[in-house]
Amino acid sequence: MTQSHPRISKAVIPAAGLGTRFLPATKATPKEMLPVVDKPAIQYVVEEAVSAGLDDVLMVTGRNKRPLEDHFDRNYELESALEKKGDEERLARVRQSSDLATMHYVRQGDPKGLGHAVLCAAPHVGREPFAVLLGDDLIDPRDPLLARMIETQERHGGSVIALMEVAPEQIHLYGCAAVEATGEDGVVRVTGLVEKPDAADAPSNYAIIGRYVLDPHVFDILRTTEPGRGGEIQLTDALQQLADDEKVGGPVHGVVFQGRRYDTGDRGDYLRAIVRLACEREDLGPDFRAWLRSYVAEEMQQS
Ligand code: UTP
């Protein structure tokens, strides 16, 4: 299929969830603002969108999410204090987040589910294909995924989701895709989707992870999608309809991701993200790795 629509330029970042897995830290602070080393998780996500060429970013926020808007805005007081001190390095770090992209915000009054959060983006997105990046899902910047998905969507049309193979005992934590081969390396055709299945009912061990490139027909479907699993309006249910009908927003392809990814809304994964990214930092890594080695050695002696 040839390219039949404008180049994708808009990213939607749903960040209105309650973050209950991270309570009490998320009682008054959005989970997307939790620091991963020294940057909030959400900044990595916006940086990823920008490096895939998407410089129009709409964040779907909700109650308690004000710090998200403040983080991507100027902070004149802080900037002038750093300017007076001549602290150019920190000044650059403070300005980095406000200079990244053109940011827009929409409030999801009630967190009725990911599908509903995506629907809140409809007036801003219009009738163009667009990308969705979950605000708590961190893809290592060295393992680009979104650019591959956009390129796949431009070749095939329809919608594209990101898939990752997981162990069968993990599949109940994810949406799961039934797939067939396309003959293209790392690209599959999605024939069915099911949200958080038991291992015995899972059609594959391909888990859906938090990156999507969607045809705007998904909005028409979401408007009539009834609440599904957990009483929430599920994006997976709308994707199933896209996969069913090639003429209405389909086909749905899956790009298989084999790189590093962290669910920063999960406490264990959050800790792993910090340790890994801190180890790899030029400024902090050498000292931190040395400490980690001796800590692990001590632990091994005790066990
Ligand atoms: P999660 O499934 O991680 O839900 O949402 P959650 O409520 O944020 O977290 P827990 O499970 O209670 O700890 C996946 C993504 O969808 C967004 C979340 O912000 C997250 O980026 N989301 C979810 C919304 O924007 N609105 C919703 O109504 C639900």
TrEMBL record:
It is an enzyme of class 2 (transferase). It catalyses: alpha-D-glucose 1-phosphate + UTP + H(+) = UDP-alpha-D-glucose + diphosphate. GO terms for molecular function: UTP:glucose-1-phosphate uridylyltransferase activity. InterPro entries: GalU_uridylyltTrfase_bac/arc, NTP_transferase_dom, Nucleotide-diphossugar_trans. Its EC number is 2.7.7.9. Pfam families: NTP_transferase. The keyword Nucleotidyltransferase applies. This is UTP--glucose-1-phosphate uridylyltransferase. It comes from Streptomyces misionensis. The lineage of its organism: Bacteria, Bacillati, Actinomycetota, Actinomycetes, Kitasatosporales. The gene is galU.
